[in-house]
Design a protein that fits this description.
It is built from one helix and seven strands. With 72 residues, the protein is mainly beta. It is rod-shaped.
Length: 72
């Protein structure tokens, strides 16, 4: 079964382990998906709820550069 290694409320690793051993290590079983999003490293966990990381802002494209080859 998959378990989350959580540090300061954030998943820092995902391991395959038997439930008994995972419980001894303090690892938490987690679902593969929450709200149709794959759970994984970087997600938060508050002891009850899985929290998706914030989406990074969309990158802005660099302005298009044109060169007047006749002037070169």
């Amino acid at each position: 079964m998959k378990h989350a290694v959580i540090d300061n409320g954030i998943i820092v690793n995902v391991v395959l382990s038997e439930s008994d051993f995972a419980a001894q290590m303090g690892w938490v079983a987690f679902p593969d998906y929450v709200d149709n999003k794959a759970v994984g490293i970087g997600w938060g966990y508050d002891g009850t709820n899985w929290i998706a990381p914030e989406e990074p802002p969309e990158a802005e494209l660099a302005p298009e550069v044109t060169v007047d080859v006749e002037r070169i």
